[in-house]
Amino acid sequence: MKIISMIPARYSASRFPGKLMQDLGGKTVIRRTYEATVKTKLFDDVFVVTDSDIIYNEIVNNGGKAIMSNKAHECGSDRIAEAVENLNIDVVVNVQGDEPFTDEESLKKLINVFKNDTKNEVDLASLMVHITNEDEINNPNTVKVVIDQSDFALYFSRSPIPYPRDKNVNVKYFKHKGVYAFRKQALLDFYNLPMQTLEASEKLEQLRYLEYGKRIKMVETDIEGIEIDTPEDLIRANKQWK
Questions:
Q1: Is residue 204 a part of any domain in this protein?
Q2: Is the CA virtual torsion 73, 77, 79, 81 positive or negative?
Q3: What percent of the chain is modeled with pLDDT above 90?
Q4: CATH code for the domain of 1
Q5: Residue 43 has pLDDT above 90, yes or no
Q6: For 8-17, how does the pLDDT look when each residue is reduced to its tens digit (9 = 90+)?
Q7: Looking at residue 233, what DSSP letter applies?
């Protein structure tokens, strides 16, 4: 099984433009993420895929591998699909460019999903973290996921799911971490299928997979790290790095 990692990286970002080129402990955020992914030694190859000359040059000029996107894309899955279309691979792992604390243990769990999937029941796998803080549960920037008895995703939402109508029920809430592992064909199918209403409403690309019947295996991890979405996140990340 040939497994690679792709790190989609846009220079522009609505909440924090240019965040991937910000300094984190003496190196840029995107370079930290790339080097952390390579350091796991879990992949046959690791690439940053970007539409930005700035990010492309940052990786290549520091000895890394990068691919320029030929088209503008709505989401990271589209960007990766274009990059892997003609590559001879089985599984591609999407590591978010703004998560420089991505860890080996969590990535290994995702890869093992496919190594253990002897019946080919899984189209893609992703990570989730148990959360208890009410502010986080109710925060629309925190994407929640609900799962079935076999840990397959039922739905993702920016709203609290399930809604706690009965306060006496002991419900576990899970935050979705945007790290994915795809079978190549599932990714190409996504690329060629139009967006539907659930994805358009919630602005969550993973809903497109569910709307078209793809199966997403969720893997729980207790390693959350720091996702850099805001200048405040970058300050916390630098403190943790030190």
A1: no
A2: negative
A3: 74
A4: 3.90.550.10
A5: yes
A6: 998 887 678 8
A7: H
